Amino acid sequence: MDATTASTGSSSGAAVLGPKALNRALLARQLLLRRVRQPVSEVLAHLVGLQAQSPDAPYYGLWSRLAGFRAAELAELLTDRRAVRATLWRGTLHAVTSEDCLTLRMLAQPGQERAVRTNTDYDGTRIAGRPVAELLATAEELLAEQPCTAAELRARLTERWPGCAAGKLGFAALALLPTVQVPPRGIWGSGGLPQLCPVERWLGRPVDPAPDPAVLVPRYLAAFGPATAADLATWSGLTAVRPLLEGLRGELAVFRDERGRELFDLPGAPRPPASTPAPVRLLAPFDNVLLAHADRTRVLPERYRDRLRNKNGLVPGTVLVDGFVAGLWAVTRPAGAGGPAVLTVRPFRSFSARHEAQLRREVASLAEFAARGGPAQVVVEPPA
Question: The domain that contains 247 carries what CATH number?
Fold first, then answer.
């Protein structure tokens, strides 16, 4: 039975979707029920970017979704400037297509401005005594001359304006000015500090200064729905999402969750039956699946929520079993040459024989991928 008709409905007449139906819908849209063969650019566009706070994270995210994925496929998009690593949703780094960076970047600007107001004396026109327009023009000029790190930008601002509050000005400039992190940062197997360049300089076109936020609704629902207004706000960082949803209500399907909250969706989007098998998957650190909803119980059981928290705000790699988080994984590399890449898996509980077999296959495949042609070692700890 289709998940949309599996329940008896709510008092409003909308069908009720339980946690497992929502889980399967999310996994289907995130390409996690079965690996697909699609160009990386199409997948980045469909997912509206992949989290990229960790340079390797989008590579692992694509490995878990694409059959036969090669790291060079994403690396080539980044070096050819068909994709970029840029600050987008919730003020975090995403690997996105260059077209999405140009057309969607300024929808993240209100969140960036809130961050600047919180962390500086920004009053909407001036920061640390400098007009914001002058600051952004100066920062853009400096970064266009030569990409540089955040620390180098602060030093250049101090040279330009001796005695300035370089920390505040640098923070504000990098938050408010659309920039990308340029290669080799973010290229598989490469290192180095993040260096920044203005989007317009890197891509040869300016960002759209005033995109319509309504375009986000179908994009978000296609990748993460069905979802509440709070879910959309959590993912996008926008504060006024209810009017966007109301404006499109006639074009959307409407459901309820088991707590009676209204869920919006695209009418033709995948909603597999709750009984659909979900294979074991290893999600990337910072994976979109874990960060795109206000209520994460559709994929993260409440009893395990604290295991993903840490003081640095890092989101580890996670193990999905039957569609839900049931463990963590991490790759460590030797300090010197020649040692193996070590993939450590930490299950939260015991698994069935079928899921154990699936986990072994996934872990072996990920270890080979993570080793980058070198030796690999797998450590599966006892459930804890």
Answer: 1.10.10
